[in-house]
Amino acid sequence: MTAPSLPLSVKYFHVLLGLSAIACLLLLILHLCLGSVALTPKEVLAALFNQPAEVLHRQIVWDLRLPRALIALLCGAMLGLAGAILQSITQNPLAEPGLTGTTSGGVLLVVFWLTFAPQAMQLGSILPLIALVGGLAASGLVYTLSRQRDHSNPLYLILNGVIVSTFLQSLTSLFLLVKQQSLGMILLWLIGSLNGRVWVHWNAILPWSLVALPLGLASAGIANVLHLGDDMAVGLGLPVEKARAGLFLVAAMMSAIAVSVVGAVGFIGLIGPHIARQLVGLDARRVFPLSALLTTLLLLTADLVAQALIIQVGSVRSGLPVGAVTALLGAPFFLYLVLRKI
Fold it and tell me: Distance between CA 337 and CA 332 in Å, rounded?
């Protein structure tokens, strides 16, 4: 009896990973070309190497488009990897950063901070730390509520995450109703937006991501053992509670870091990991890196669509916030996953 042949996406996983990375690079270049002032790839390359055809080209590429595209790339990778980790440890395909309290906790604390220190929106350097504190506090509460007889229940992680997220979102809404003078400044950030993101925001999240992303990718082996079930994992010598708490912490860290800069971009951490799992199976060693790349592709694409859809806010014309586009894509996808399970 011959063993079943592997799917092509698994057999040629490294090719798939390489093609996804190339697609990310192409979308990054497209980001630098498109905008209110269209540039050719040749003009973009000239500007990148400080030999622009016009001085304005260098300012457009270096000061406006490149940091925005790089932030989309980095935050997409973190949200995708965080979603893949959460889906793995809860064994729930509907798990994503927005359903575990992390996003809502980070949003709430940053809204407090921006309301009383609005200059922080421009400085950016303190926001990852503020969001990290809020996200970790919320995820810590979810994890604590999910513990039963000294061990956590993966199902309760999701249920309590939804409850805590809803409560924190309500607190955020009530706070903004009381402080309506801050609503205009924070609204686009609450929806999720890459508008106005510059180098200071990139510099703020880069050190954190250099720690969080390698930790997340390196945890794939632990996630695979947890996927076997608690009893089997204990039999293999894995301290299940410490492992699950550690993975939950890493996912919360990446989610909070991304939220601190791009805001509450919804569903993006659900779609990418789900597609990755459909392509390469359940092995976290393949799912985790592919999830990061596919979610980056989705966020870069959504941001291109958002920039193309111009809206008028008072006397100002700007693109849609990227969170509005991901919500339009993600809500039907979420409904599809729910109906598919019935």
Answer: 9
Long-range contacts of 301-306 (CB under 8 A, 24+ apart): 301/27, 302/268, 302/326, 302/329, 303/31, 303/68, 303/72, 303/194, 304/27, 304/30, 304/31, 304/34, 306/194
Tokens read off for 141? 């509460």
| Rg of the chain in Å (alpha carbons) | 20
Superfamily of domain 39-188+196-265: ABC transporter involved in vitamin B12 uptake, BtuC (1.10.3470.10)
Q: Worst-scoring range by mean pLDDT, 2-6, 14-18, 66-70, 323-327? A: 2-6
Taking the domains of the chain in order of start, what are their residue ranges?
Answer: 39-188+196-265
pLDDT of residue 98: 80
> Whole-angstrom Cα distance, residue 323 to residue 76?
12
Tokens found for residue 245:
């708490």
End-to-end CA distance of the chain: 35
Whether this prediction's pTM lies above 0.85 is answered by: yes
Give the whole-angstrom CA distance, residue 268 versus residue 336: 15
Contact 74, 206 (CB under 8 A): yes
Q: For residue range 93-122, what is the model confidence (pLDDT) as tens digits?
A: 878 888 778 888 988 888 888 777 666 555
**Which phi and psi (to 5°) does residue 239 adopt?**
-75, 95
Which amino acid, residue 6?
A: L
